[in-house]
Design goal:
The structure holds two protein chains of two kinds.
Chain A: H1 3-48, H2 51-55, H3 69-99, H4 104-118, H5 121-136, H6 141-166, H7 169-177, H8 182-210, H9 214-217, H10 237-246, H11 250-286
Chain B: H1 4-9, H2 13-51, H3 54-57, E1 61-62, E2 67-68, H4 71-102, H5 105-119, H6 123-149, H7 165-190, H8 193-201, H9 206-216, H10 218-234, H11 237-242, H12 260-267, H13 274-311
Antiparallel strand pairs in B: 1-2
Helix pairs in contact in B: 2-13, 4-7, 4-10, 4-12, 5-7, 7-10, 7-13, 8-9, 10-13, 12-13
Classes of the chains: A mainly alpha, B mainly alpha.
């Protein structure tokens, strides 16, 4: 190697090392704030959490303490309503997509679910307002449930489809060879086999909906009092965080962190268990 | 596999019912998108008729005089989203390169999962962090310095509020980073190893080989970027909490602004007149159209790219 080409070689080497380090640096720069957010929330949240937080009602302005029992129950009811509205559609549509994989209509629907998942949740809130709040002439938990139900559809549909597709084909072939009609094979053999995956996929959709705030602000609105009446405004964890974060009281801000902590823990549990269950599935398929 | 004809001849009545039932629900999903468009068109009719295209260029937003122009919000959404993209894109590509090309598997797997997990944190939590950590930090540490360095530079002028376009851009950048980097990583991983091996065998350095991979995957990265942009445009809570919520157009990134999603979040429940509500619905309609176009384009690009490499 003459001197000139070895110079170029070292220059190329140096450049490669530089760019590799830049890539590593960007990982550090990018991931650090994400972890800061996560651990800051955990830290702030843990100190705000106690028994009162879960079982007490919000205290009137000026008093410290109290909890968010109504918001916890409210979020539960809203998610229940959303599930009733969104999940049957999603699971059936997911079955259709998995069973008619290459049909033109399936391709269109698959594409639309992807597009639907990108539509801002606030827009879905506006639609729920138009569909429910205006005819009922008042804010209600039902409207919030409709918004959350629509928001669940993309995730729930696509994970249902994926989970059904993961069931090995021999299951279906075996059933059909025994003379069982297709629909029965799907309902009695394929679905039970895929049930674990579908359940966690559905939970993933519900967890995502649990974190939604924007579509609830002007549908379920929020409520400082105990209410389980779905025709009236209802409290929710996320709107609770929004209101309490804006409030000029330290104790309220502290409780907002507590609620954020509860939310994150819920969402992480669901996501991590989804990860483990689907990983088993993938492993099973390759063997 | 039975042929189409013989399958049809033995079709079971139960099969037919089951198939049409599932088809019906798939159709519900299909129809939902159009129902949404229809509802918003109907709701915004009043405002469309009254203002026409002037709605997009009008700069006054005056509920008292019942006169509405959406330009300050469009401006705020565009500026905060582009700022977010500017900050997040180089970092995301760096992260994607690291995960797809450089990291050993035992780092790559858990790290990718963590990045995806962070995408699952609700936006209200990012907003909460923005209000109590990011904004005070900007106000006391960053913005005074920016003002001191460049007191004539138009991008950094005014007072260090903390709340403003800069805060919104940063929080959006943090939020879209997981999306752009995880999709870019998928695209880069889909590129066959033969490409890398060929480059390395010809004597290319790591970076030179990576450059080839990047040029193969550039349309996929574009798709990922569009998806991130779509998310930034529609992001509501975190932005609402930090952008300052003032419907003004200012060249300075330190000044408070307003975004399309934020104005809906803040004012929809309190809109008093029919025209007011209708104007807000029109803003939602614009958001809907923009995000549909962005997402459709992005999905098509990402699909075609990963398909190309999978069949290759």
């Amino acid at each position: 190697m003459n001197e000139f080409s070895s110079k170029i070689f070292y220059w190329r080497k140096a450049k490669s090392t530089l760019m590799t380090s830049l890539s590593l640096l960007s990982v550090i720069v990018a991931v650090v704030p994400l972890f800061l957010i996560f651990f800051y929330t955990l830290l702030q949240g843990v100190s705000a959490i106690n028994i009162d937080f879960f079982v007490q009602m919000p205290k009137p302005v000026g008093e410290t303490g109290g909890g968010m029992a109504n918001a916890l129950v409210g979020t539960g009811i809203l998610l229940g309503l959303g599930s009733i509205i969104g999940l049957p559609i999603s699971i059936m549509a997911g079955i259709y997509l998995a069973e008619n994989e290459n049909a033109a209509f399936a391709k269109i629907v698959r594409f639309l679910t992807d597009v639907l998942s990108g539509i801002p949740s606030i827009v879905v809130g506006v639609v729920a307002y138009m569909l429910v709040v205006i005819p009922m002439k008042q804010f209600s938990a039902i409207a919030g449930g409709v918004a959350l139900g629509i928001l669940m559809i993309p995730t729930a549909t696509r994970t249902t489809e994926e989970m059904i597709k993961l069931v090995p084909n021999v299951f279906r072939e075996g059933a059909l060879a025994l003379g069982i009609p297709r629909w029965k094979a799907t309902l009695r053999i394929i679905l039970p086999t895929a049930l674990k995956g579908i359940t966690t996929g559905v939970l993933l959709a519900i967890a995502r909906a649990a974190g939604e705030t924007a579509p609830l602000i002007f549908t379920a609105l929020g409520n400082r009092f105990w209410s389980t009446d779905i025709a009236h405004p209802m409290a929710s964890l996320t709107v609770f965080i929004f209101d309490y974060a804006k409030a000029p009281f330290d104790d309220w801000n502290r409780q907002a962190w507590g609620a954020a902590f509860v939310l994150i823990v819920l969402i992480f549990i669901v996501n991590i268990s989804f990860r483990f269950i689907t990983r088993d599935r993938y492993a099973g398929k390759h063997n | 596999m039975k042929s189409e004809k013989s399958r049809r001849s033995v079709v079971n009545i139960g099969d037919r019912i089951f198939r049409s039932t599932t088809w019906f629900f798939a159709f519900v999903v299909f129809a939902l998108v159009f129902l949404m468009a229809y509802e918003m068109l109907k709701g915004s009719q009043l405002s469309i008729e009254k203002f026409g295209f002037k709605f997009l260029t009008g700069t006054t937003w005056d509920p008292v005089a019942d006169n509405y122009g959406a330009l300050p919000f469009i401006f705020g959404t565009v500026v905060s989203s582009l700022l977010a993209l500017l900050l997040a894109l180089p970092l995301s590509v760096g992260v994607a390169i690291f995960l797809a090309e450089l990291a050993p598997r035992w780092i790559e797997r858990p790290m990718s999962f963590m990045v995806e997990l962070l995408a699952a944190i609700p936006s209200i939590v990012y907003g909460l962090w923005g209000v109590f950590v990011l904004v005070p930090w900007l106000r006391t540490s960053v913005e005074p310095k920016l003002l001191a360095i460049s007191d004539t530079f138009p991008l950094f002028k005014g007072a260090p509020y903390g709340f403003g376009m800069l805060a919104a851009g940063i929080i959006l950048a943090i939020m879209i980073l997981p999306i752009i980097s995880s999709i870019s990583r998928d695209v880069l991983s889909a590129i066959p190893d033969t490409q890398r091996e060929a480059a390395l065998a010809l004597g290319a350095t790591r970076w030179e080989a990576t450059k080839i991979i990047l040029s193969d995957g550039r349309s996929g990265i574009l798709g990922a970027t569009l998806l991130g942009l779509g998310r930034a445009v529609g992001e509501t809570m975190a932005v609402t909490m930090v952008i300052g919520n003032r419907p003004e157009i200012s060249a300075s990134l330190l000044d408070p602004g307003y975004s399309m999603a934020s104005v809906i979040a803040n004012e929809f429940a309190e809109a008093t007149t029919a025209l007011y509500t209708s104007s807000l619905i029109e803003i939602a309609l614009i958001l809907f159209c923009v995000t549909i176009v962005l997402n459709a384009a992005a999905r098509l690009i990402v699909w075609s790219v990963t398909k190309k490499f999978k069949t290759a």
